[in-house]
Amino acid sequence: MNIRTTSIVAALVLGSVAIVAGEEITYSGHIAPLVAAKCSACHGAEAAPEYHAFKKEKDKWLAKGQGMRMDSYSHLIFYTAWPDTGALMRRLDDGKNGKDGKPGNMYRHLGSSEEERQKNLALFKGWVGSWSLKRWNEISREELDGIKVRY
Questions:
Q1: Which of 28, 38, 3 is nearest to 119 (CA)?
Q2: Which of 3, 10, 66, 138 is the most exposed place for a label (fewest CB within 10 A)?
Q3: Residue 136 covered by a domain
Q4: How many other C-beta atoms lie within 10 A of the C-beta of residue 46?
């Protein structure tokens, strides 16, 4: 990509984020359609087990390429705030602010290009609010209070 193309792509990505930034990002308006498009094949009701069923037979489900069910608001909250605090963020993060710089194992599924992945990550980050990779025993009360996850 040349500098002009890179600038245009950056402007488009930032422009689409800015449009969303003017409105409240919600599960029903922004995240549910994104999950349906990018995540349901492996994490939808037809394909994925509930958390405890997945944990009980984790190797079996992973061998099938299936993850835990994440196709509803309540499922995503489970992996965002409590009890599996930060799990969603750790898996979707691009790694740019992480200790090792590695993206989460699901980041690549957020889009077919880096620009699309960054746009979709920005939606998730805007929805969550306090984007933290920390687990329940590591997160501060202030960070936990910053999690928005509006329906």
A1: 38
A2: 3
A3: yes
A4: 8
Asked whether residue 95 is assigned to any structural domain, the reply reads yes
Q: Give the residue among 1, 66, 3 at the shortest CA–CA distance from 39.
A: 66
Overall pTM surpassing 0.85 (yes/no):
no
The pair of three-digit structure tokens given for residue 8, joined into one six-digit string = 């245009």
Task: Please count the structural domains in the chain.
Answer: 1
How far is CA 55 from each of CA 62, 69, 84, 95, 144, rounded to the nearest angstrom? 10, 11, 13, 25, 25
Residue 135: strand, helix, or coil? coil
What confidence score (pLDDT) does residue 30 get?
A: 97
Per the domain annotation, does 66 fall within a domain? no
| Enclosing domain of residue 106 | 3-40+71-145
Encoded tokens for 116 = 């699309």
Q: Considering the domain boundaries, does residue 106 fall inside one?
A: yes
Question: What secondary structure does DSSP assign to 31-65, as a single string?
Answer: IHHHHHHHTHHHHSTTT---HHHHHHTHHHHHHTT
pLDDT at residue number 18: 39
Query: In angstroms, rounded to a whole number, what is the distance separating the alpha carbons of residues 104 and 111?
Result: 14
pLDDT tens string 8-21: 444 444 444 434 55
